Amino acid sequence: MPDDPQWPTEDDDAESVAAASQPTVQVNRPSVDQPTMRLPLAAVLSAPSTQEPPRSSPIRSAPNATGPGHAAPGVPTAGSGGSGRPSGDTAGGKSHGAIGPEVGQPRAVPVRVEPKKDQTRVVPRPEQRTAELSVPPGKTARVDQLPHLEPSWFDQQVRSDRQPRPEQTKRVDQLQGQAPPRQEPQRQEPPRAEPARPVPPPPRQEPRDLPVTGYEEEPEDRLADEPRKSRKPLFAVLSLLVVAALAGATIYAVKEFGGAEAIETRPPAAPANVQPLVKAVTAGAPAPTPAGVKRALAGPAGNSALGTLTGSVIDPASGTALWQQGDTTPATPASSLKILTAAAALLSLDKTDQLSTKVVQGAEPGTVVIVGGGDPTISGAPGRSVYPGAATLDDLVGQVKAKGPVTKVQFDLSRYTGEPLGPQWESVDIAGGSVAPIVPFMLDGGRLDQTNINGTRTGSPAQAAADAFAQRIGAPAATAGTAPAGAQVLGEIKSAPIEQLVDNMMQISDNVLTEAIAREIAIKTGNEPSFAGGVKAVRDVLTKNGFDLTGANFVDGSGLSATNKIPPKLLTDVLTTAAKPTLDDARTAKLRPLLTALPVAGGSGTLAGRYDGTAAPGKGWVRAKTGTLTGVNALAGMVVDVDGRVLVFSFMSASNRNPETEVRPALDVLAAALRGCGCS
Fold first, then answer.
1. What distance in Å separates the CA atoms of residue 376 and residue 462, rounded to the nearest whole number?
2. 116-138 b/e with 16+ CB inside 10 Å = b?
């Protein structure tokens, strides 16, 4: 048949006596009865001749080749000792050209290649020497899967001493697809991941990715029929996109932040004109009536736990008195008196004013003097303070250290005059955490535990603060002294602004801070910086601003003294002015921060833990200043009712009932009743 391969026959072996003594390789199909193709072993394993371009072979192994003219170790080659080839021929023998006899060329002795379960054996005939090649399990490749990087010697036409056939010679992988007449059932190859195919597909003409050698280093999926698609185009596209994005971002940044415009210096914008207003939650809210408020408060005001109850309720939008009960009768306000001190501070002091503490050069070399500036909020332990925005002692020490060594520390308390404790104050209140001696230099309001609002305070806050300064600067214990006139300032720290100090004193009801602010009002108004001078200054400022202080008699600014007496109406008058819906009144703009300084029911300050149970409807809606002394409880502030109307109130109770479980909850219910009032 024209397509039959030209296989050497047994008769051809007689013509190649010279090559019979050489070890030969017989390439067989898996069946032992199929025709064989014999090749000289030396010719297959030796390096190619320089007379023809080398051609790749599926049997040649790159690691065994030692270079041109050298054979693999242990395998005799043509042209070497023991072969029939003259030694004068080109090293490595003739290159592997067409299969078939040539004039003067010996024939190869046949051998068989048999597949096994885990390897492939090359088996010569019994009378011949053998050479066995093994392929690791799982890495075996069929002949038709071997890549064709360059034409193989299998691709050459068969040449013989006879005239070659005109038909093109078949390759080994093509021959495997044809069955000879005596073919037995074909054996299956060792188990592979894919099912065995009886007829392999025709060989692909395009170059494959893998070389013939080195299969043990390549992944198994590289031997599949379909070549893996390269991801290089995808990576290239992604890289271009990233580069384009970076380029765009760079151009944007240069345009947005660079260039001539980036170096222009523009003046800062003018500060916003802030005018805080208390507006109705609902537009056109119905105005409450005295009768409606009276009905709403009838039940809560009759609670016997309140004892003697006095107070008033006012609509700040209209100025109408909605409820009155002993509102002009003086009563003990306790800490609700702080409303008056806070109002006087906002009306007389600049809201941005700060309290300054300085260290100046002493009269002797190495001596420094701490000049108390009335700031009780200085923090002795940064991060552990109940006063937001407080200056720190460490800052002051650092400034002074930078000026030179210090051998002696003194402190000057001349800013204040008079007694450090107020009239009718009790010394037990110091240990109880309510107060400390009022001096112009101290740390953390005299507290021993900087974070405990009601913790124990020291009886000598100035000495303790000065000693802390001396210890940190490396000097002996401090002593009292006086700063020289016009002395050089070595260090200075400042408190938070007055507006923030007022807010802080109202939220935590701090007595020491309140008294310090009262003295600052006294200094500003030309009064003596003492308890008496502070009280006089507060009264003078309130009177000057049109508030009626008839019946008001108080001896301190914090309300700690039980002898203080004021009518509830005075508190509601001040709160009404602060809560007016418009700023037509000049006092309203100054007093507006007073409303935001009030603790929020169930949310902040001294009201954070209150307004549970029956008083819960007022949570978040009531804002008020508390007051507590033995047998006295007070609550004064503002609330928004369900109709969206702002109401101002003040309640004072004189009762010997339990303040925590009875009196204060009763006051909370009273204010919450105003929240639920639809009192039109």
1. 10
2. eeeebebbbeeebeebeeeeeee
**In a domain? residue 23:** yes
The enclosing domain of 532 has a CATH number of: 3.40.710.10
Condensed to tens digits (0 to 9), the pLDDT of residues 20-48 reads: 444 444 444 444 444 444 444 444 444 44
Per-residue pLDDT of 304-317, as tens digits, reads: 999 999 999 999 99
Q: Are residues 342 and 362 in the same domain?
A: no
Which letter does DSSP use for residue 646 in this model? Answer: E
* Three-class DSSP labels, 27-73: ECCCCCCCCCEEEEHHHHHCCCCCCCCCCECCCCCHHHCCCCCCCCC
Query: Is the domain of 372 the same as that of 344?
Result: no
**CA dist., res. 164 & res. 23, Å (int):** 28
Q: Which tokens hold the place of 589?
A: 């703009």
Let me know: does 655 contact 631? Beta carbons within 8 Å. Answer: yes
Task: Please give the helix or strand (H or E) that residue 358 lies within, else none.
Answer: strand 356-361
Q: Do 539 and 587 sit in the same domain of this protein? A: yes
**For residue 254, is it within any domain?**
no
**Residues 632 and 311 sit within 8 Å (Cβ to Cβ):** no
The β-bridge partners of 635 are 626, 651
∠ at Cα 656 (514, 629), nearest 5°? 10
DSSP 115-126: E-SS-EEEEE-T
More reliable by pLDDT, 361 or 251: 361
Q: Is residue 225 situated within a structural domain? A: no
| Residues 152, 94 share a domain | yes
Q: What is the CA radius of gyration of the chain?
A: 53
Specify the number of domains making up the chain. 3
Residue 384 half-sphere exposure toward CB, CA atoms < 13 A: 10
Contact 439, 416 (CB under 8 A): yes
113 φ/ψ angles, rounded to the nearest 5 degrees: -110, 115
Please say which residue of 496, 513, 536 terminates a domain.
496
User: CA separation (Å) from 265 to 252, 253, 260, 262, 598?
Assistant: 21, 19, 11, 8, 42
Which candidate, 302, 303, 339, places its Cα nearest to that of 663? 303
Q: Helix, strand, coil shares of the chain as percentages rounded to 5?
A: 30, 15, 55
Last residue of a domain, one of 496, 531, 564: 496
Q: Is the whole model's pTM more than 0.85, yes or no?
A: no
Residue range 149-163: mean pLDDT, rounded: 47
On whether both 559 and 536 belong to a single domain, the answer is yes
Choose the weakest-confidence range: 135-139, 222-226, 472-476. 222-226
Residues 438 and 541 in one domain: no
Q: Are strands 408-412 and 479-480 parallel, antiparallel or unpaired?
A: parallel
CB 448 within 8 A of CB 457: yes
CA distance 116 to 190: 7
Q: Are 564 and 345 in contact, with CB atoms under 8 Å apart?
A: no
Angle between helices 511-525 and 338-348 (to 10 degrees): 40
List the structure tokens of 317: 């939008």
Task: In whole angstroms, give the CA distance from residue 175 to residue 111.
Answer: 17
* Residues known to be catalytic: 335, 338, 509
Alpha helices in 67-203 (DSSP H): 172-175
Q: Is residue 269 part of a domain?
A: no
What is the domain extent for residue 544? 290-349+523-675
- Residue 459 and residue 377 share a domain: yes
Q: Check whether residue 550 and residue 666 sit in a common domain.
A: yes
